[in-house]
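Ex. 9. Protein: Nitrate reductase.
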Amino acid sequence: MQTTPLTGVEPAPETAVDLGKAAHPSVGVDALCDVASAASGRTISPTLYNIDLAPTKREGRRWTGYSIFTLWANDVHSLGNYAFAIGLFALGLGGWQILLALGVGAVLLFALLSLSGFMGVKTGVPFPVMSRISFGIRGAQIASLLRGAVAVAWFGIQTYLASVVLRVMLVAMVPSLQELDTNSILGLSTLGWASFVFLWIVQLVIVSFGMEMIRKYEAFAGPIILVTMAAIAVWIFVEAGGSIAWAGDNALEGGDMWRTIFAGGALWVAIYGTFVLNFCDFTRSAVSKQAVVRGNFWGIPINMLLFGAIVVVMAGGQFKINGTVIQSPSDIVQTIPNTLFLVLACLALLILTIAVNLMANFVAPVYALTNLFPKHLNFRKAAWVSGTIGLIILPWNLYNNPLVIVYFLGGLGALLGPLFGVVMADYWLLRRGKVNVLELYSEDPAGAYYYKKGYNPRAIIAMVPAAAIALLIAFVPALEAAAPFAWFVAAGIAAVVYYVISDRSQRLDDVDGESIAVASAH
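Predicted structure tokens for Nitrate reductase:
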């Protein structure tokens, strides 16, 4: 008989079997918690625990190094990231300078994502449950809802942007459809509505089958994206006569150049400020820490080097052809003269955008809603609620309103740095990775993560000055030069303040959650 990895206690085989039978969507949360309580010898609360929030069993985890790599193969090559990196060319950075900026960001991301990923491997819990460690069993709602609110808005926006690509493809295949793209219903044409709703349904169907289906989709999409983007780069290279422009007309030099390089690297990390928070949503099903390291290594520094090379070829090649700077690969795709190749490229971009949306903008709000209503929502139901919100906010109107993007979504995004600072300082600096997983699901006032009425006031206090400074840097014009570094400044301040004011008298137990864990594929 195997012992649990951290406590050395032999679990009772009969309760482990009973929990396995109880962990089924048709079983009520109260009944599941009764079995989990019997299995663990603790009172497991139905307001904190269900089949989706429970820890994942170590045995049977399926996310390998390749699974982690394909996450980044999709996300790094997103259209938004290409727009950002090509923007560095427009700002005056040359080829090697863009690669250096992305390299600086990649090294930092590799370290941050590995630390964040290790948390998921060890505990097997999703981000809303992970944040209970530092914010308390109730205070964790603050962290998960902030992360989820940003994601659900971007889910709608990214779906809209993908629908624009679908419209281009449909009109190229059937030119007469152009007539359906001239009217406006709540800000979107008839063809636009049809394209948006179709992609909306496709994503909801995929997510309805849970994290295992997302893993399979990412594994399917990753190679397609890499091949497609490389092919587009080769095509533009040939069109440019076998050479590219290594810089634009406004090439930066000296101090301005280096400032822009490091600002670009910092912004590259800030773009992933959401992902470094909830990476444990994926690594909770990783087979080992080594799998996370391998996946991150090939997916972050190596993959980002390839990404940077493609960016340089695309931007430099197009600039040599006609002296213009493209905004994203979709600009190049629309110029492909062959209808078949144009359609194939559009399909690849659609596959990419769906892959990015699933991992970056769907999983977080689904877990946030499940954590908010664990007795009423499971992963599938929460997916439909999240997707519905992403539809009724009419995201195309949000995207076309700079004030919404800058002040609402930008303001929420600025708060994610302080969240990350508190979570990481608490887990790695204060607790040194020691977690009592069972008490993450307990409402006992004497529990390790109950704090004061379920909230940790020290975590909230640490966030206040960091959040205020982050918002000032983000929105005050006089502080514009510091804006690229706002995420680091805010995360650092929150981490330092929390570490200074934290309660050193806490008992730091290390207890795994195998006795209440469920299979990672559900």
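Check your answer against this statement. The chain has 22 helices and no strands.
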